[in-house]
Amino acid sequence: MPQTLYDKLWNLHEVAQREDGTHLLYIDRHLIHEVTSPQAFEGLKIAGRKPWRISSNIATPDHNVPTTDRAKGIQGINDEVAKLQVVTLDENCKQHDILQFDIHDIRQGIVHVVGPEQGLTLPGMTIVCGDSHTSTHGALATLSMGIGTSEVEHVLATQCLKTSKLQNMRVIINGDLQKGVTPKDVTLAVIGKIGTAGGTGYAIEYAGSVIENMSIEGRMTVCNMAIEAGARAGLVAYDQTTEAYIKNRPFAPTGEQWIHAKSQWEELISDEDAKFDKEIEIDGSLIAPQVTWGTSPEMVIDIDGFIPEPDSESIQHALDYMDLEPGKKIKDIKLDQVFIGSCTNSRIEDLREAAKVLEGKKISDSIKRAIVVPGSGLVSKQAVEEGLDKVFMDSGFEWRAPGCSMCLAMNPDQLGDGEHCASTSNRNFEGRQGYGGRTHLVSPSTAAASAIEGHFVDVREYLP
Amino acid sequence: MKNTFTFHRGRAVPIDRDNIDTDQIIPKQFLKSIKKSGFGPNLFDAWRYEDEGFPGQDVSQRKPNKEFILNQERFNGADILISKKNFGCGSSREHAVWSLMDFGFKVVIAESFADIFYNNCFNNGLLPITLSSEEISMMLNIAEEGKEIEIDLENQVIFFEDNEIATFEIDPFRKKCILEGLDEIGLSLIHAAEIKEFEEKRAMESPWIFKMGNKNEK
Ligand code: SF4
Fold first, then answer.
1. How many domains does chain A have?
2. Are residue A178 and residue A277 in the same domain, yes or no?
3. Are residues A205 and A231 in the same domain?
4. Do A32 and A150 share a domain, yes or no?
5. What is the DSSP-derived secondary structure letter of residue A22?
6. Contact status, residue A232 vs residue A240, Cβ threshold 8 Å
7. Has residue A183 been placed in a domain?
8. B80 to chain A nearest CA, in Å?
9. Residue nearest to atom 2 of ligand 1 (CA)
10. With contact defined as beta carbons under 8 Å apart, do A364 and A454 qualify?
């Protein structure tokens, strides 16, 4: 029977069926960060259990780490409660001999940036992490899902995820993207079309010429936000682009194993006549740069759009929170802050995309603060080598050390009450970026161009 | 500790909104704890209080937002929450379930749930019930009056004033988990030998996945 990519990955990892009808899916890679793991390690200890396979685990602190003053390491974390989490991660990793890229390590960064960058994310793997944006790794033809802390403990103890099979959805995006339209706009447009619950219960495979022509980093941006469409997993088939991306990564196989691995990876595509439970087609050439206006990623419109009329309690509530009038042009929203970063858009290509817009320009005086937070120490290093840090700083952006930063504002990088922010992150929930903060999700180039003007602009008209 | 129950009578509180995300249920500043308890006072923090919340604060000194439904007197002691579509979307933080439970909630009834949140509920003993949009509208109305409802998990029925007003579907095993509070890890470890066998086969077929610790140098 023809199979989808998801079916194949599932079949490759199915270990057993439990008495209750759920399945045990073998987990190849388990990514760990400081916020969702302490209670899991504690649970293991209380039950007198040990991690099943140490070599599957890899840890890095990202959510809480400060993005300034990093030379001080853990001592540089002023918030005692946050510090305790980072210290606890250190201790748990040491105790169990788990490989950690700690706060001093140049390889430290947002867990979803670090995995692929190190070749710890490899095609054909099952990957889990106590973080919903684990869907990111599906860009490399893996089955990757976010899990809760009880499940983290379960995976540590059994090397398996207890789960049920998802349904198959395929989102096909064909056509040529317009100049200035980026993977972020593509993924936002998909969410705008299917809604934040549209993918609930599904694994979404992204396909079509737009995806085929997209870089791996772009595919990661797309899969990253599969969870914002409700899907636990996003997937893209293996191809030449995947192969080229993985080759020579530190933890990627080499020599004969590379050849052996490749022969397995080449199977990681949906069979031609595989059946999908749901299929959606989008004309890529019609996608405009996207901006969210509300407090859910599905509240998204084209850059030349208008704030909608409320037709439900939820929309009215969002309009009130965002302090927006129906009928207003999205371009007329004045911005207070700009954030370029997060596991959606903090990789080198994202930084290049924004720097290209900023080159030789200054951000508007009306912007109170604009920051760039690279996704990892190595992204940062690469950007510095290319001189991107200078472009950002010359234009008025602050150049920061890697971490989640203002994506969820657990560290000191936060929005003020009522401030509007153009953000390249993935969630515009109330208060997500700071108490009372108002987040608008956009691509790195839209964020950069809007920083220059102090309000949203159509980057299609902005690029040379 | 996991909650267990078979029959529950309690007051329901309606939060008439779609897409209540886990950032609203428990804002990120409270995720810095390394414990599973103590999140209750900060459940829906940004909606419940007029000032900004910080971990370790004495919440009795804060100004409650009187408008927010959980603060209205007629909902004192409510332990059933009624909401609409896509409840628990967003971040995978299990702290959302811990905070609902720490506050005292035993049941959440909604039109639909986000996947990760739904799993997290069962892993802790919070009962998520899915009902149709018509049933939810009816439940929201009943709850609005501050009245009590009864949930018979064993028979999967909801009662109001002794009348059966809805029935619900629930996976039999998940039901058992809430009824009896089973140890999920223990149940999976029954299959330990199969996991070992699978693992050995996988290590033979795709050895690069298992080669790691030895590359632990910079
Ligand atoms: S960057 Fe944001 S979304 Fe990504 S893992 Fe960190 S907090 Fe989560």
1. 3
2. yes
3. yes
4. yes
5. -
6. no
7. yes
8. 21
9. A407
10. yes
The pLDDT value given to residue B5: 76
| A316: chain B residues, CB-CB within 8 Å | none
Contact criterion met (CB below 8 Å) for A87 and A77: no
pTM over the 0.95 mark? no
Yes or no, beta carbons of A427 and B91 under 8 Å apart: yes
Here the tokens at position A201 are: 């219960």
pLDDT tens-digit profile of A128-181?
999 999 999 999 999 999 999 999 999 999 999 999 999 999 999 999 999 999
User: Are A231 and A100 in the same domain?
Assistant: no
Domains of chain B listed by start with CATH number? 7-182 (3.20.19.10), 184-218 (no CATH)
In degrees and rounded to multiples of 5, residue A39 shows phi and psi of -70, -25
Residue A228 maps to which CATH number?
3.40.1060.10
- Burial of B162 (C-beta count, 10 Å sphere; 0-12/13-18/19+): exposed
ipTM for the complex shown: 0.93
A77 and A105, same structural domain? yes
Structural tokens at position A452? 């220059």
B150 touches chain A (CB under 8 A): no
Tell me the C-alpha to C-alpha distance, in Å, between residue A147 and each of A18, A36, A153.
19, 9, 10
CA distances from A291 to A65, A208, A372, A426, B24 (A): 28, 23, 19, 11, 22
Cβ–Cβ < 8 Å for A232, A166 = yes
The span from the CA of A181 to the CA of A64, in Å, is 32
Q: Which are the contacts of A298, defined by CB distance < 8 A and separation ≥ 6? A: A191, A192, A195, A196, B19
Could you give the CA distance from residue A275 to residue A221 in angstroms, rounded to a whole number? 26
Residue stretches of chain A with pLDDT short of 70: none
CB contact under 8 A, A157 and B185: yes
Task: Please check the confidence at residue B214 and state whether its pLDDT lies above 60.
Answer: no
- DSSP secondary-structure letter at B113? B
